[in-house]
Amino acid sequence: MDIFKCKYLTHENEEIMGFCLNQRCQNVTQYCYLCLNTTHQEHFNDCIRFTKLILFMNECMQVYNQQRKQIEKKLNKFKIIFIDQKKWIRKLIYWKI
Ligand SMILES: [Zn+2]
Ligand SMILES: [Zn+2]
After folding, report:
1. What is the mean pLDDT of residues 24-40?
2. This protein's superkingdom (predicted)?
3. pTM for the whole thing?
């Protein structure tokens, strides 16, 4: 597929290896092996390969899931407290205090 080939004229048929995540980089984000050694060479550490990107995304998902579980736990605690409070208020209303 053409979408996975480098767009630079002199890099014909070179496959795209990954993305450049450098915030100051003005070049095309997708890079091939030749781009990595020319246009992105000064910040090649910020160039992430597709395989690494998938691992990185998985790590992000794990962190997200852990945080979501913690928030759910806190919400459940809050719900229990709220239900308890509601019972108390009903009792107070019942006894007209
Ligand atoms: Zn290229
Ligand atoms: Zn770059």
Report:
1. 94
2. Eukaryota
3. 0.58
